Amino acid sequence: MDTITRWNEVALRANRISHTFAGGTQLGPTLSSRALAIVHLAIYDAYAAVLGNPATLPAYLPGLPAAPSGATTSDAVAGAAYTTLVALYPAQTADFDNDLATMGNPASPGHTFGVAVANALLADRAGDPGASGPYTPTLTRGHHRPDPDNPTQGYHGPVYGQARGFAITKRHALDAPPFDNPEYVDAVREVRREGIRPDLLATLPDDFFKKRREMDHAVIGVWWAYDGVANLGTPPRLYNQILHVIAAAKGNTEAQNARLFALMNVAMGDAGILSWEQKYKWNFWRPVLGVREHDPAFGPTPTESDNNLDNTTDPFWLPYASPRTNAVNPAFPPPAGGTKNFTPPFPAYPSGHATFGAAAFQIVRRFYGIAANQNGNDNLLDGLSFISDEFNGINQDNTGTIRPNHKRDFPGGLWNMIVENAVSRVYLGVHWVFDAFTRRNNGQPDLNRKIGGVPLGLDIANDIFDSGMKRSSVGPLP
Q1: CA 20 to 30 Å from 126, out of 32, 348, 413, 442?
Q2: Does the predicted model carry a pTM greater than 0.90?
Q3: Contact assessment for residue 447 and residue 455, using Cβ atoms and an 8 Å cutoff
Q4: Which segments within 97-226 are labelled E, that is strand?
Q5: 66: DSSP letter
Q6: Are residues 465 and 187 in contact, defined by beta-carbon separation less than 8 angstroms?
Q7: 3-class SS of residue 72
């Protein structure tokens, strides 16, 4: 393991720990993707400056000083990683001190240079909005409100999407999601069947029950989850864990890892910004409201009275929901909301999971030579298998039962991952399929339509890769 991947593991540990104990920082998918982007951009710029080969490793941040004589890449990376991590996760400073003691030399010129690069990156992102901010929900049909099964959940990141981009050259946006048309009704029926809480399966009508969720769908939903819970953290951590396996299998050099880990994490940094911008622009409700209030006779402002309800409606429906893993583990404090699974506290469209996954895995595909328009299976994962911490034989479901160890492979490569990660949220009942993508008649994603997180994530990744990962000056949409 080289210095890049070792410090990446430290950053992933910080993500996990911060979501495990009270008082954590960089919480949720927004701030954790931002943190990983900052750490890896600092690592990259420090490493690239010391190596001094701008043709293959061009600087991200303009105006950085030259690396001093005698600086080593390992010390520069250590200084950059340590400084950003302490600034982002101050409560874990003692752990980072121990890491630095084994992976760096604070008295070296390389370390001092890495610190300077890190401070420049931190200053460059100092104006970013946080995950809190003003938000007033609307009672209009089709718009986001809190999960009725977790009514005090609040709102995550209502102004986060106003941040300046990390490396995008334009503000990629989406068209409106389908609503109250046949495509939307099909999505309602799909998630009602696929995402229902298991103990409510028997409540499905006959035509739904005959097509009930298969077990592999339920497993897929949990396998990809990482919903900001104890001892797991957020989806960007999972995608980095996957990249570790790929980079090792490909025999990456340290220089390749410096650029690849920066590319993937900066793509997720921009995915967090743009998906949250679109979420609060469209402000679309989640299935927990949309299924229960499908008939216009339901809702806070019913638009009609109806004693013969639309059979697509189920006012008692609840999703399997995002798994509150380790919520009853005595080693970790219980969450304020109890041990029930939950619907994430922000609008549905587009899916953050779908956007993060598409941006992350597409930029890895581009790094290994897949063309921007090659939207289909690849062979980048041939012979590889993966274990998610959601199914590692250690972590517990929301009842305190340890889930079994479960290994998965992906015959369709990283494209297989992009699609499966995206639809996994339908299998938990927390997203509509069009939050990920719309479908062609053959059931495959229709990426010609700018609808859903997968098209958005692909646009972000292709933009950053093609433009060379340069500092963005692109501000929020007006």
Answers
A1: 348
A2: yes
A3: yes
A4: none
A5: P
A6: no
A7: coil
